[in-house]
Amino acid sequence: MKKALLIVDVQNDFCPGGSLAVKDGDKIVPVINELIEKFDLIISSQDWHPADTVHFEKWPPHCIADTFGAAFHPNLHSEKIGLKLLKGTKNSDDGYSAFEATNIDLSHYLHDQKVSSIYICGLTTDYCVKQTTLDALEQGFHPFVITNAIAAVDVKPGDGNKALQEMYTAGCTLLESIEI
């Protein structure tokens, strides 16, 4: 059985200067680049919202398809990503989880590749990372969340820590990149 690295939403709009910036969101990029060198199967997700999505009733406009904000952070070694998932592409779709990608069925792809363990990193701990992790468990995979390669929005202070506890309680493994 294989293991895969799943990089969640390391996009310009979620990094400092972006329209929905995560504090220190760009500080995880060097850690993720080191992780990329340790995996043969590297997958990423990207928010890819239409400009008129209902998602923007809850959040400021961000990661609008084909814009600078939707692009990967410029320092991310994205050329090494083998599969790029687009999510939140429909007007009525929030697209928090990489398993909601509209261009490929991630669960089927991972099963076809004989992946059992998914190592998850990226943005945001309390939304997209959390939902991707919970969906991975639901789909029969063992997710490992790399705690020094994630960052939270923390709409309410502590949301990121609550999300980590929720993922751990649900059955994921929390670890740091040095443990891989």
Tag the structure with descriptive keywords.
single chain; 180 residues; alpha/beta; Rossmann fold; 6-stranded parallel β-sheet; 4 helices; 23% helix; globular
- Can you summarize the main beta sheet? 6 strands, parallel
Q: What is the radius of gyration computed over CA atoms, rounded to a whole number of angstroms? A: 15 Å
Average pLDDT taken over every residue: 97
CATH architecture label = 3-Layer(aba) Sandwich
The number of helical runs is: 4
Q: How many strand elements?
A: 6
Helix-strand pattern, N to C?
EHEEHEHEHE
| Number of separate structural domains | 1
Report the span from N to C terminus. 16 Å
Protein described:
The chain is of the alpha/beta class and 180 residues long. 23% of the residues lie in helices and 23% in strands. The protein has one domain (2-179): 3-Layer(aba) Sandwich (Rossmann fold), CATH 3.40.50.850. Strand 4 (115-123), helix 3 and strand 5 (142-151) form a beta-alpha-beta unit. Helix 3 packs parallel to helix 4 (159-170). The mean pLDDT is 97.
